Amino acid sequence: MKICMPSYLVTGAGGQLGQCFQYIASEFPQYRLFFPTHPEVDINKFGTLSNYFEKSPFTGIINCAGHTEVDKAETEDKEAYQINAWGVQNLIDFAEVKNLKLIHFSTDFVFDGTKKTPYIEGDTTNPLNIYGKSKLAGELVLAKSNCQSVCIRLSWLFSPFGKNFVKTIINVSKSTTELVVVNDQFGKPTYGIDLARAVLTSLRNPNFYKYKTYHFAQGPDTSWYDFAQSIIKLTGINCVLQPINSSAYSKAAMRPMNSSLSTQRIEKTLSLNIRHWHLALEDCLKKIQDS
């Protein structure tokens, strides 16, 4: 079956990152992008991929599907691995049979956070929680595959869609005058719309598949507390933030203390100019306000 126009199946289309791809799809008329519902395409059910392909053939897969609830994964380990690892294997198997390209997303949580400088793609992985371990398992099966693929690690994803830190801070701060936020975990936020746009911009870059793994995040480094302060300041919400150490803030899953990702490889290889998260946050908040 010959397909003339580059076309991509976006799995997990109803999730946060999938919705970001949907939001900007009209900016890229050079591609056909398919956004199936979960019943139409379940990455754990090979047959749904085959059925959809027969109806709407595609040349590649952009996998936005994932079990991303970090604390829930501690008690839902089977589900986390099913989606984040074995589901990826299903996509690989299908991509190899049909000779498709595969773009996959992973996380900063594959690292343990002990490094003092930003993590580069080749740094040793050592996830602290089930979520990170399941995502690393997905990376490893992809690394062993024969399909043309790219894995993009991201961190602290936010957008106008789904559940994320920015929307949580806005919603919770509207009903309280004081909020505690951890101030000793550091990293870089990632605006989902900027990530989606960067991916679709780069798909035709001849260097896109030069490396198997890239990092995408938006500097400068910040803490969750300082990120929250920026959200409160820009929205004008009357809420006082109180800093708290991770040791005093109990969570089911351990978090890395420093999960900052170096983006030098992706910026240099793909000639990307990644804007600071401050500007991305302003854009995100405007879209939330207008929605």
| Computed Rg | 19 Å
CATH level-four homologous superfamily name: NAD(P)-binding Rossmann-like Domain
Strand order of the largest sheet: 2-1-3-4-5-10
Element string (H = helix, E = strand): EHEHEHEHEEHEEEHEEHEHH
Tally of helical segments: 9
Overall geometry comes to globular
Number of strands: 12
Question: What structural class should be given to the helix and strand makeup?
Answer: alpha/beta
Mean pLDDT equals: 96
The helical percent reads 25-40%
Cα-to-Cα separation, first versus last residue: 41 Å
Q: Which residue ranges are poorly predicted, with pLDDT under 50 across at least 5 consecutive positions?
A: none
The largest sheet, given as strand count, sense and whether it forms a barrel, is: 6 strands, parallel
User: What is the second-level CATH architecture?
Assistant: 3-Layer(aba) Sandwich
For this structure, the CATH topology is: Rossmann fold
Please state roughly what percent of the residues sit in beta strands, choosing from under 5%, 5-15%, 15-25%, 25-35%, 35-45% or over 45%.
Answer: 15-25%
CATH top level is Alpha Beta
Domains counted in the coordinates: how many? 1
How would you characterize this protein structure?
Helix content is 37%, strand content 16%. The chain has 9 helices and 12 strands. It has helices spanning 16-24, 46-55, 77-98, 130-143, 165-173, 192-202, 224-235, 264-270, 277-290; strands at 7-11, 32-34, 60-63, 101-107, 149-154, 157-158, 178-182, 186-187, 190-191, 213-216, 222-223, 240-244. It has a 6-stranded parallel beta sheet, with helices on both faces. The chain has a two-stranded parallel ribbon with strand order 6-9. The chain has a two-stranded parallel sheet with strand order 7-12. Strand 1 (7-11), helix 1 (16-24) and strand 2 (32-34) form a beta-alpha-beta unit. Helix 1 (16-24) crosses helix 6, helix 3 (77-98) runs parallel beside helix 4 (130-143) and helix 7 (224-235) crosses helix 9 (277-290). The longest helix is centred in the first third of the chain and has 22 residues, at 77-98. The protein starts with 6 loop residues before the first strand and ends with a helix. The model has no long low-confidence stretch (mean pLDDT 96).
